[in-house]
C-alpha cells in the first residue's frame, strides 16, 4: 500500500479527487465500517468525493450521546453546512448478534489483563451498552435515527433518514 501511495502521488492520481471540506449535497451519512461498503455504498448512491460527509463505525450505531459520532455530526451540521443525515445499516452485519461478554473473553484470550477490564467496569464503563451489537437491523436503524432526532444538540430542522443497504446488490430500503 505504501509503494502504491508513492506512485499515486508521483503520477498525480489525486487530481480527480480534489474538492473542498464542504459537502456538495449537504448530507452526512452514518454507516457501518464493513469492507463490503467501502466502494459499494458510494457507487449505489451515486456519490463521489466531496458530495457527503461519511462517518463509519462498527454497526453504524451511536454508543454514547457525547462520543465521536455525535461530535462528527455536530461538526458536519454547525461547521460544514449539513442539512440531512442518512443512517445506513446493511444486511449481514458483523455487529448483529455481537455480545460484549464474548468479546471480553476474546480480549482475555489475546492477553488483555482481566484486572484492566474490571478496573474499567469500576470506573463506570458499561461494556454491555458499549460493545454489544444488535439483534434486529431495522430496529437498530430506527433507534439510531430516534437517538439523533432526540439529541439535545441536534437542531430540529435537520432531516434524519434511516435505510438498510443490501451488502451484495447495493439495493437501498427506506426504514424511516
What descriptive keywords fit this protein?
176 residues; alpha/beta; Beta-carbonic Anhydrase, Chain A; 2 domains; five-stranded mixed sheet; 7 helices; 5 strands; 16% strand
Walk me through what this model shows.
The protein folds into two domains: 21-97 and 135-174, Beta-carbonic Anhydrase, Chain A (3-Layer(aba) Sandwich), CATH 3.40.1050.10; 99-132, no CATH class. It is globular and about 50 Å long. It has helices at 2-10, 37-45, 68-78, 100-109, 114-122, 127-131, 137-150; strands spanning 27-32, 52-57, 84-90, 159-165, 172-174. The relative contact order is 0.18. The model has no long low-confidence stretch (mean pLDDT 97). With 176 residues, the protein is of the alpha/beta class. The termini are far apart. It contains seven helices and five strands.
Shape: globular
Number of helices: 7
What's the rounded overall pLDDT mean? 97
Find the count of extended strands (DSSP E, 2+ residues). 5
- Biggest sheet details: 5 strands, mixed
Question: Based on helices, strands and strand pairing, what is the structural class?
Answer: alpha/beta
**Largest sheet, spatial ordering of strands:** 2-1-3-4-5
The CATH topology of the largest domain corresponds to Beta-carbonic Anhydrase, Chain A
Question: What would you say the CATH architecture of the largest domain is?
Answer: 3-Layer(aba) Sandwich
Which CATH class of the largest domain is shown? Alpha Beta
In terms of quaternary structure, the protein is single chain
User: pLDDT under 50 segments (min length 5)?
Assistant: none
How much of the polypeptide forms β-strand, as a percent range? 15-25%
Work out the count of structural domains: 2
Helix % is 25-40%
Question: CATH superfamily membership of the largest domain, which one?
Answer: Carbonic anhydrase
Write the element-wise H/E pattern from the N-terminal end onward. HEHEHEHHHHEE
Radius of gyration: 18 Å
Distance between the termini: 39 Å
InterPro entries: Carbonic_anhydrase, Carbonic_anhydrase_sf
GO molecular function, one term: carbonate dehydratase activity
Protein name: Carbonic anhydrase
Keywords: Metal-binding, Zinc
Amino acid at each position: 500500500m505504501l509503494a502504491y501511495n508513492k506512485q499515486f502521488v508521483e503520477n498525480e492520481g489525486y487530481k480527480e479527487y480534489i474538492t473542498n471540506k464542504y459537502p456538495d449535497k449537504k448530507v452526512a451519512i452514518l454507516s457501518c465500517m464493513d469492507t463490503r461498503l467501502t466502494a459499494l455504498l458510494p457507487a449505489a448512491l451515486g456519490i463521489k468525493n466531496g458530495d457527503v460527509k461519511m462517518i463509519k463505525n462498527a454497526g453504524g450505531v451511536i454508543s454514547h450521546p457525547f462520543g465521536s459520532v455525535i461530535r462528527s455530526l455536530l461538526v458536519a451540521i454547525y461547521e460544514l453546512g449539513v442539512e440531512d443525515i442518512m443512517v445506513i445499516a446493511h444486511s449481514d452485519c458483523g455487529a448483529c448478534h455481537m455480545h460484549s461478554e464474548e468479546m471480553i473473553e476474546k480480549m482475555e484470550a489475546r492477553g488483555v489483563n482481566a484486572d484492566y477490564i474490571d478496573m474499567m467496569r469500576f470506573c463506570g464503563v458499561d461494556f454491555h451498552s458499549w460493545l454489544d451489537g444488535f439483534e434486529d437491523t431495522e430496529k437498530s436503524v430506527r433507534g439510531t435515527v430516534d437517538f439523533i432526532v432526540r439529541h439535545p444538540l441536534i437542531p430540529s430542522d435537520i432531516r434524519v433518514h434511516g435505510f438498510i443497504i443490501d451488502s451484495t446488490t447495493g439495493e437501498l430500503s427506506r426504514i424511516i
